[in-house]
Amino acid sequence: MTIMYELQRSRTPDFKKPLIIYNGYDKATFISGMPEGNFYFRVRALKDKQTAVTEWSDTIEVEVEYQSAFLTITLLFAGAGIFLAIVLVVIIGNFKTKEDLGVNA
Prior knowledge:
Blueprint: E1 4-10, E2 19-24, E3 37-46, E4 60-64, H1 69-101
Antiparallel strand pairs: 1-2, 1-3, 3-4
């Protein structure tokens, strides 16, 4: 018998309005694009899309939290500044080496 898995997500631990976010044969899945907040997950095994083989698993709580836009932009500009500094050092070093060797640029 091939076992399927059903994964549910809810905003509340009692799963009054659950959302089925996965139903299939894989034992692992990747979830992205979730809004910030607390979410609750549970899973159960099925022998087909309707017939449960197991009860629901213990519920796990996941908190989704994003870093601030200010930090993101600060790190972006810091990385861009370091990248440009490295490019400048490479270009200057290239011309300096050519001058030292007496090669025309």
